[in-house]
Amino acid sequence: MIIAGTMPIKGMDLIKGAPKLSNNKIIINDKEFPVSMGTGALIGASLKTMEYFGVENDITIITAGDIGEGDGSLKIYDELREINDDLTIIHYIKPKITKIKEVDFSSKVIGDAGGMYAGKAGEIGDKFYMFFPDVGELSFLADEEASHPAYVRGFISEIDDKEVPKLIKRAYNQKMPKQMVIKGKTDYIVEDGNIVDTVGAPLIEAMECIGGTGDSLTGIVSSLIAVGYKPTKASLMGCTINRKLGEKIKAKPNTQISEIINTIPEVLKEMNL
Hints:
Helix content: 25-40%
CATH class: Alpha Beta
Number of helices: 11
Order of helices and strands: EEEEEHEHEHEHEHHHEEEHHHH
Number of strands: 12
Mean pLDDT: 93
CATH superfamily: Ribokinase
Low-confidence stretches: none
Radius of gyration: 17 Å
Largest sheet: 9 strands, mixed
CATH architecture: 3-Layer(aba) Sandwich
Strand content: 15-25%
Strand order of the largest sheet: 2-6-1-7-8-9-10-11-12
């Protein structure tokens, strides 16, 4: 499995290699990164999930520094023009329509954050295997005129969870992946534009306040797919696992995402996976 995404470090050159997790630090080619929200949380959750199944060495990271200027993102896009893996996640990256269209989609490519934005804006969402929007990002996917979440029209962006089914239908009037997980108070598991399942319990309100829980969910579900679970089953299990993590550690608004991620193997064991 390949995880491609930027780190908010100005001037950091491209790094490609196998990650390790030690003392809440991700280590790639002797370079250390914090397990925090964003790409770091995604990598950490993927490592702990894959570690449980004994395949943590099957992860490759492609990252570079980017603080919004797009320099690191361009380096990552260039690496994705030829993909030699069964599953790739394109995560935090500056959306570039011309560059996303050059990505090798011959294998499964999952889009989240900037990778998802670029796919939608480039009208190639159907080339992706899966998207992971939250409710706000779903509004962007549903707005046929928006090229970025910041430009979603007001009548679409001012929504609540009750309107999620309508937004899903509207999003699928455009080019979307077959699979989608909408993250929120209730998680919606979608296939071909249809809601096939939902996960609403356990409801741990504090999880909404903790940066990185959406990234960790993407990492857990993607890793379950990587080890052989079908996408709908992996989505149902992953959404449940992410919620049980909050329950297990009695999450509070000031809980760190690293504490949640380190508990993944314990919850997987309790679920007899």
